[in-house]
Amino acid sequence: MHRFKPSKIVKLLFVLALLVLCVLLAWALVLFVLGLNIQWWAKAMILTCMAATVITIILLRKMWLKRKEMRFVDGIIGSDMPGNISALDDATRELRRRFREAVATLKKSHLKGQGNPLYVLPWYLIVGKSGSGKSTAIKSARLPSPFGDVNRVSGIEGTRNCDWWFFDDSVVIDIAGRYTLHHDEALDKSEWLAFLKHLVKYRRREPINGIIVAVEADQLLGGDLERIEDEGRAVRRRIDEVIHVMGAKFPIYLMVTKCDLIFGMD
Fold first, then answer.
1. Are both 26 and 93 inside the same structural domain?
2. For the CA atoms of 137, 140, 141, 147, what is the dihedral angle to 10 degrees?
3. Within this chain, do residues 132 and 226 fall inside the same structural domain, yes or no?
4. 154 φ/ψ sector (left φ>0, alpha ψ -120 to 50, else beta)
5. Last residue of a domain, which of 79, 98, 120?
6. Contact criterion met (CB below 8 Å) for 196 and 73
């Protein structure tokens, strides 16, 4: 028995909605040209049907775009599959476990009294190469956390993929440096896109609220210019991928780390 794919159903509904809208517009135009004296409630019904059809078209278009974005992620993960399949499987399972732990932590917190605990606080990604001082900057900020010691939040320890930091006013996800600058191009890229897919899965309405890019002060002062440009382009590609997958724009913040290495700032 042939089964319609969800994407085909969405396209079919989209086309039907457009046809309905065209029929309603043609009907309204005929009534206007002929100058027929119709009741006010009939006019109101026509306008209501047209408005409902337009809203339906907009919603269907959003659904279609979201499915297209998810297929884009699946396609890249499939086409760039690393030679070591078991390594990707292990990494994906670890990512899934981390997300489940983080979500469970939020759902058990006091945030559930303020609405959906996954959306009460803004979520931020902090990106940067390994050793750029991301985690140190977060710890040194000494931001208040409802979970006490932010170094070990509800048993969620540092990993090779992402660390979760829960504060009173935000949730910060510190991603591994290799997600920003792919060391193993195939494996790291597939893991990175799987990470984005998990974000969209668990926080569909608004996956993130912003990205914080960490850059070392000593690199800006005396680093190799060509290397800095290459790393900057890599960061830009990661940001573009996030925008593409999530279908939304958000603020980007630049955080200069290791400022104690600047003369006079120690």
1. no
2. 110
3. yes
4. left
5. 79
6. yes
Whats the size of the chain, residue-wise? 266
Domain end (from 79, 108, 127): 79
Alpha carbon 174 to its chain centroid, in Å, reads: 14
Are 52 and 102 part of one and the same domain?
no
Residue 45 is encoded by which pair of tokens? 């019904």
Domain that includes residue 70, residue range: 6-79
Full pLDDT tens readout for the chain, 266 residues: 444 455 566 666 767 777 777 777 776 666 665 555 666 666 677 677 777 777 777 777 777 666 665 555 455 444 444 445 566 678 788 888 888 898 888 888 888 888 888 889 999 999 988 888 888 888 888 888 876 554 444 434 444 688 899 998 999 999 988 888 877 777 788 888 888 888 888 887 788 999 999 999 888 888 788 888 999 999 999 999 888 887 778 999 999 998 888 777 76
| Same domain flag for 224 and 111 | yes
